[in-house]
Amino acid sequence: MKLHEYQAKDLFRAHRIPVQNGTVIERADEIDAVSLPYPLVLKAQVLVGGRGKAGGIKLAATPEDARRHAAAILGMSIKGETVRRLLVAEAVDIAAEYYLAFIVDRGARALSAIASAAGGIDIEDVARTAPEKIAKAAVDPFLGFRPFHARELGRRLGLSGALLGDFVTVATALYRLCEGEDAELAEINPLAVVSGRLLAVDAKVIIDDNAVFRHAELPTNEEMTELERAARAGGLSYVELDGDIAIIGNGAGLVMSTLDMVAHFGGAPANFLDVGGGATEANMRQAIDIVGRKPGVRVLFVNIFGGITRCDDIARGIAANRPALPLVVRLTGTNEDEGRRILKDAGFDAFVEPESAAQRAVALAGGGA
Ligand code: GDP
Ligand code: MN
Predict the structure, then answer these.
(1) Catalytic choice (5, 187, 281, 336)
(2) Which sign does the torsion angle of CA 212, 216, 221, 226 carry?
(3) How far apart are CA 212 and CA 219, in angstroms?
(4) Residue 303: inside a domain, yes or no?
(5) Element at 204 (helix H, strand E)
(6) 232 to 31, 46, 237, 248, 274: CA distances (angstroms)
(7) Could you read off the pLDDT of 325-355 as tens digits, one per residue?
(8) Which residue is closest in CA terms to ligand 1's atom 10?
(9) Is 103 a domain residue?
(10) Final residue of a domain: which of 42, 59, 90?
(11) Residue 64, φ and ψ in degrees, nearest 5
């Protein structure tokens, strides 16, 4: 579960990691009641990165600026997410930008500290263009991340004196936060030098979904898209991806292998929906609506291996809610003959082999070899 910057900064405050004073507003006219000294920085609170580049972060020197920017940012869409909250904070003069994070490092089977003197930009970009600028250290879970580890890491960034002292304080606190809150990522980018001290100008925290239940005190954030919410409400499990082939299947294993097959033949899944075992005609009708509503979908691929789920129910669902998109069906198993007859009457053929069906779906989407 991702936290918003303002929520992550509340955790930072609790762990004594220095952050700017700030407040959150939801309507542009609330800006007039904000009693912070100018200049201010206005920051869109969305759960996607790169807000700065997307125009979601603005400096305001005057109340007029602040009103104008607040009106522009609230309601704008950043990578598909509508901005509903704005963090208004005291702007600072930044002399240098560092990067610091703790992540669950599966390779190291531990938390790892990652730090860089090239902060303020995407760490992925730094990793690609100048990997030598990234310092990394796996943390021994029994020993923890001690001040001497932090000093060693800070020295590798070229820090000394008061800044090194600050770095030790911030890094050990960020480690405690990451471990204590069961975060899979706790990131400060930029960790900025302001008036000779370190300050967390941005904050990103992702709580391990499997540990959220242990943290009743944390806020809960809704990360689902509108279609994911609709699917959840209908008892269907649905996930969005970036391609153009919509996939419906029954059972998680079958759906996963369908995704793999589509990718194997050069296609790109747009989403996938698992109607589950014992899917009814009504489930199927709704499934077709949900996957087909995603913008950019060009083909619908239905892969059913009938067991508890009956092929005739699936076929009736398709016949009753004829997809507007080109449709490829693979149908086999319980009540297969009846299912095929219903599909035939509705004007559809069904494949038996999933491979040929996947190839057909990819070809219809205009991809593949
Ligand atoms: P992100 O784009 O979503 O990562 O948002 P950040 O909070 O990291 O802000 C992006 C960039 O805006 C930072 O790297 C800073 O360069 C700049 N920025 C953010 N807050 C301030 C501020 O208070 N003062 C100044 N001068 N720049 C800021
Ligand atoms: Mn940032």
Answers:
(1) 187
(2) positive
(3) 10
(4) yes
(5) strand 204-207
(6) 36, 22, 6, 15, 11
(7) 999 999 999 999 999 999 999 999 999 999 9
(8) 52
(9) yes
(10) 90
(11) -65, -50
